[in-house]
Amino acid sequence: MTVADMWFDPKCPWAWNASRWLLEVERVREVEVRFHVMSLWLLNEGGDGLPEWYRRWLADTLGPVRVLAAAEREHGTPVLRDLYTAMGERIHHRKEPIGRDLCADALAEVGLAADLADAAEVADHDEALRTSHRAGLDPVGEDLGTPAIHVTGPDGAVNAFFGPVVSPVPRAEAAGALWDGVLAVSGTPGFFELKRGRTGSPRVD
User: Which of 91, 98, 129, 103 is nearest to 12 (CA)?
Assistant: First the structure.
């Protein structure tokens, strides 16, 4: 069984697509996916030269990751899988406004106390959030962001990379084929980048 650890910010549509792809990979390959929280707000904290539209987009991202960090601290890392799905469905498919109600409803859906949503407004779990954030991004390098994935091989070596950035989500064996290809290129010594221009906004499904 191969372990794939993914770091996500729940608002990022590219991370959402990558996470849904990984869940498809679990069905067609001997892979176990574990989810961890990072923060695009922290990634861009103090950054100069950000486009104004992106600053506005980032404005409501800190609250949900704080709630995720609080839930993880209280209930353990496995709780993030279902809580991320509950948040992501509301953010990316239902287009609900990000705020306390969204977090409380997502918590209730997965059987957690809705008052964990209060963590969105306080810094109580920011140290744990920063620790998780850096654990995911430092091995990738260059503060590339999310999706960040670490794949642990049979020998214990960790293959860490940013991506894939994909839309729409590959399903069934197409997901497995992409997985095989991603491992082939990212596991090649000295391989750093394969990229082409995006032709549209992410399609989440």
Answer: 91
